[in-house]
Amino acid sequence: MKTAFFILAVLLAVARPASAQSAGPETSLKNKALIQGALADIDAKKYDAALEKLQVAVQSLPDDPFVLNLLGAAYTKKKDYATARGYFEKSLVLQPDSFPPKFNIGELLFLQRQYPEARAYFEKMREADRRNELLQFKVFLCLLQMGDKDAAARTMKGIKYPGDTPAWYYAQAAWESKNGNTRKALEYLTAAKYVFGAKTLLFDETFDDLAIKLR
Question: Model-level pTM?
Fold first, then answer.
């Protein structure tokens, strides 16, 4: 799968939805095929086709947080942020402690350039996990986009190195890019890709969202 979109990346790492597992064999196979097809469609940027498949799947899985979150992902790609948020919220009602839909609501704020609100949202999430590198990275980017370089620098220093994700490298690259040091920024990205490989795809997508072009 080529798509780095966080909503999808996390979904692929979790177990199959409980409701899908409890359905009959034929229905389960059908839903699995629909979901896999939707993922492939999103990867190919065929968002309408993905939504058609997911709307069929949700008819037999109306209370499945996995499918609801994936619907939110597809609508996010369509830039229908209001509908996307509705699906993320429905997913959270069913699974209140689930990280993906909770994070994705903050991501909607970030994508809409509502950086102060996104920063506050991600900071709230960090109360439950101060060491989460992705949340630290997002807070840092919000501060950088807001022009608060002092706070951004402090947050950047708090990101673990070497970490479990490419967050430290991409924070450094974003900082250097913001300061006009494109060559130095590219050096950090090159190092990140050498160390983390495909794990950098998510971070590349964030850079694309911010129109940071270093590749």
Answer: 0.87
